[in-house]
Hints:
The protein contains 19 helices and 7 strands. It is α/β, with parallel strands linked by helices.
Amino acid sequence: MFSRTACLMFLPLLRRDESQSIKKIVEYIQCKLSFTLPTISKNLVGIDSRLKVLNEYIDEQATDTLFIGICGMGGMGKTTVARVLYDRIRWQFGGSCFLANVREVFAEKDGLCRLQEQLLSEISMELPTARDSSRRIDLIKRRLRLKKVLLILDDVDDEEQLQMLAAEHGTFGPGSRIIITSRNKHVLDSHGVTRIYEAEKLNDKDALILFSWKAFKRDQPAEDLSELSKQVVGYANGLPLALEVIGSFLHKRGLREWKSAINRMNDIPYRKIIDVLRISFDGLHELEKKIFLDIACFLKGMKKDRITRLLDSCGLHADIGMQALIEKSLISVSRDEIWMHNLLQKMGEEIVRSESPEEPGGRSRLCTYKDVCDALKDSTVSSS
C-alpha cells in the first residue's frame, strides 16, 4: 500500500499520455522494490565470517563519513561480499548506488560518463545535463554533500577512477559509507582508506561445501567421489572462483571423466580461472612480470633476501617490484619466505608454456625437469 504522498505524486501524471503514466508508475515501484529484493540469491558459503568483520568496519553508530576497502586476489569473492553487504544495509541510507566493474567500464568509450550518470541518477534520482566530466564531478559533489549515502565502487585499479567519481573525503554527507573493492591495496592506501579488509580464502570445510553445491547440488559430495572432491578442494586452495568453475564443470560427470579432468587441470589449468587471475598480471610493469614469472617457476618458498639478491643481479629492481606484487595480492611473505597461491603459480607456468606450447626450447623459462629434457633433446636433434 502506497502512502498518501506517493499517490499524490501520480496525480499530475494522469493528465499525460496513459502509456507514459504507466511507465512512470512502474519505474517508481521498481525503485521501491529494489530496496528489499536481494540481488544475490545463490548459496553463499563462508559469507557470515566476512560480513562480521565488515560490519565492525562499517560502524553504524559513527556519524562521520567512512571509507572501507576490500582487497585481495582475483576470484576471492570481493564483489560478492560487497554486494551482500550492500543489499543488507542500503535501507539505512538516504541514497545508495553499486557501481560494478569500475575498471572495465572506465576503459570503455564513454565509460566514465556512464558511471557518473549512474551515480547521480541512482542516488539523487536525476540525470546530469553537463557534458563535461569535470562539471559532472562538481554536480555530484553539490548533490551529495549533505546526503547520507552508501556507495560501492567495485573493482577499482587506479586512484584516478576514484577522483573522477568524486569519491573523496568531504564529498558525502555525515554517516555516509563508501566501500571500495580492489586487487591493489596501494590504491586504497594512496586514497587514505585506513579500514581495509583483506579477503581470506575459504577454509577446507567451507571450500568442500561450496564445491559440493556446484558439483552435486547439495552440501556434501557423493560417497564414490568424496576423495576426488577433496583433491579438487586442495587444488583450489580456498579460492571461491576455482571451486565454482571446476564444480560446475564436473556436475553430472562420471568417475572416469572426473579422474581425466583432474589430471588435465594439473597440466593445464582451466581457462575461465586463468582469465580472471591474469587481469592482475597483465596490469604489471614489464619488470614486475619477469619477477612474477621467476617466482612462479623457480623461487616460490625461498627466503626473501635471497630472492632479492638473485633478482637484483639480473637488473630487475627487486625491492620495488616485489612490493608491487605484494600490494596486488600476487605474492605474500610468511616467515620471511615468498609464497603465492598455487593457482597463481599455475597461471605463471601456463603463461610460460604458452610462449611455445610444442617446443619447450622456445620458452623463456623451463619450469620442470621434463621441459629441460625435452629442450635438450630438441637441441640435440636440431644440431645433428
